[in-house]
Amino acid sequence: FYKDSKAIIHHKLCKKAYAKIVSGEPMIFVGWSGEKLSRYRLTISLQNKKGILAELLARLSDLNLNVISIELGIHSSEQAEYCQIDVESHENKKSHLAAKISQKFKLIEIISLDDAYNK
Question: Is there a single domain that holds both residue 70 and residue 42?
Answer without folding.
Answer: yes
